[in-house]
Amino acid sequence: MKFRTRILTALLVTCGATAASAQDTNAAGTALGANLLVETAQDVGRNKIEITGAQNIPEPELRSAEAEEIRDIIEKGVTTARADDLAFYIGSYYRKKGFAQVDVSYEIRGGKVVIKIKEGPRSTLHKLNFTGNHVVDDKTLYDYMIGATPERLAREPAKFPYTTAEISAGVDRVRGLYLSKGYLNVTIDASKVRLSRDGAQAEVTVAITEGPAYTVGEITFTGETIFPREKLVGALGEATNGPFAPGIATTMQRNLQSFYKAHGYYQAEVIATGDATPSPHGGRVPIAFHVAPKGLFRFGKVTVRNETPVKPRLHANFLPKRFAPLRGQVYDPAKLDETYREMLSTGLFDSLRISLEPQPNNDLDIDLTATEAKAKEVGFTLGYGSYEGASAGIRLADRDLFGHGRPLTFSADYSQRGLKGELLYVDPWFLDSRFALRTRIYSEARDEDGYSKNAIGARTDLTRKLMPHLELGVFGEIANRKVTANGISEDLLGPLQYTIAVVGLTQNSDFRNDPINPGRGFVFNTSLDVSTVQGGESFMRGLGRFSYYLPIGKTMLAFGARGGYISTNAENVPIDSRFFNGGSNTVRSFAERQLGPTNHGHPVGGNVYTVFNIEYTVPITTALSGAVFVDAGSVTNDHLPESGDMRYGVGLGIRYKLPIGPIRLDFGLNPDRRPNESIGAINFSFGFAF
């Protein structure tokens, strides 16, 4: 038979090659070859294996379910052992489908296996009866036994075939529930089964003998404990007045040992003793812990093995310098993990592994094994936004400039608003310190609503994380700008061609669980800067933002508040330095920049603004969610006395979550519409709103 298959396969290959010479017959030749191969395999299977008596389960389903055993017989030949295995597995498959009385036998006739099936009736689970249960109610036991309520079982009996394997698995789950509650001697017997006269329904009685309950008794600590008892009890990580479940003493022991390691006792040993065997009648089980801390360890030297296949670009002292601040500090796995994750986030490594080597002097040396990632990359972007319109961009980056591990990136983006380019250099460890430097040189030519601008400038930020969630910074910027009226009166644009210099302070307190897709926590940002125009007139800007994210089950309620104020000695603040409102990230019942004072229908911005947002998000699928929101905000311009009214928006939105942030589509309704205003706005954008 194998010889026949090889001949057919060879013929098919020849046919396929001949068909390939004619383009219009290629698809037909391929389909013919595939069909003949399938038919050949099926023909071989039929000649070696015959299945009789299958009525309720189609034969193709049985062959598919037991394909491995069938393939074994076809390829290796018919033997008694292989035939017996096939019959056994087919019987098991039937029993899983609820045919508890199935009988599967086999017969070998020459080179063929004949499987004989006597299906018997298909049994479904009709009812569960529980006896002896006092601690756990019937409804909970139903859930553990079959994962359904009694009402669902009565409503959909076909979904619950009766099989001894499923009943046995349910018994194991119920036993685990009782054990977790401290009933260590519980016995569960589900062997009493009553079948209906036709065998189609099964009623199972589950007899439970709960036995006595065991609880955690007195907790004692011996040895060189070092820490006060209150800390040690808290470090156990389990309730000390709860049930004594199997493994609870081991869990406590591991938690306590981890506590000592986290406080520098890297080789600490903790032995736990807690045994309920001497108390067959239940009660409190004492647990004793013996502690041997074995010395306080500190971080030692750092060694690096670079396993990059080609010549490494990264300087040999890069990783030792990054981990150097740890040296001499008491071993703390959280600090080590923080530095490790910082290195991974740079994108410099395909892999980075850490091993710790304890030394006789209680130093803990850090051994690193690294494989570098490709440093240079090219990226392209395509997008669309309600204000920017269609956009496209290119990004060229070197993550490891001159082998120092600092990235340099050039980006150019074109949108329907104009063209902008940027050269960005980032040094997360400026002068090998904990300060981070970010410098960018930029140029742009854009058409805003009511005016056009050309600008070239540079900005540098220097920041420092004082605590894990608090970052402070200073920045400086200088730019040359040219503004051209395109609908707005020139006297409302401020300076038309000027050089502006800015210095300022920033503060960022970020307690969100994820800055890209936040699900809980809050963030509070502030900035204060002073600007001078043409080296003369100056003005001061202050900005603040607070956003809070509150999970409610699977949903989320978010609050946001923002504001800004410009105190000026200048006759008119440059329009590019003013505040605008309305759009996808502010008050969403207005199009971008459309909330606030206007001139000839074009926004002119202001020196004071506020934004308030409330949004409730409900998941639809894993990635897709719906939102309802209420927004409010204002813009005040001292030169336009009629400005400053609070405006509102209510609406609905859709969010699709991506690893780099959500795509958002919002419709905001303007409830206090005024003359020449739209009824609302549709905003399509990327990223979180506030």
UniProtKB/TrEMBL annotation:
Q: Per the UniProt entry, what species is this protein from, by scientific name?
A: Chthoniobacter flavus Ellin428
Q: Could you tell me the superkingdom of the organism this chain comes from?
A: Bacteria
- GO cellular component annotations, sorted alphabetically? outer membrane
Q: Which InterPro entries match?
A: Bac_surfAg_D15 (IPR000184), BamA/TamA_POTRA (IPR010827), D15-like (IPR039910)
From the Swiss-Prot or TrEMBL record, give the protein name: Surface antigen (D15)
Q: In this protein, which residues make up the domain named Bacterial surface antigen (D15)? A: 401-690
**Is the keyword Protein biosynthesis in the record?**
no
Where does the record locate the signal sequence feature?
A: 1-22
Localization per Swiss-Prot or TrEMBL: Membrane
Which Pfam family name is an example for this entry?
A: POTRA
The record's keywords, sorted A to Z, are: Membrane, Signal, Transmembrane, Transmembrane beta strand
Residue ranges of the POTRA domain? 125-211, 214-293
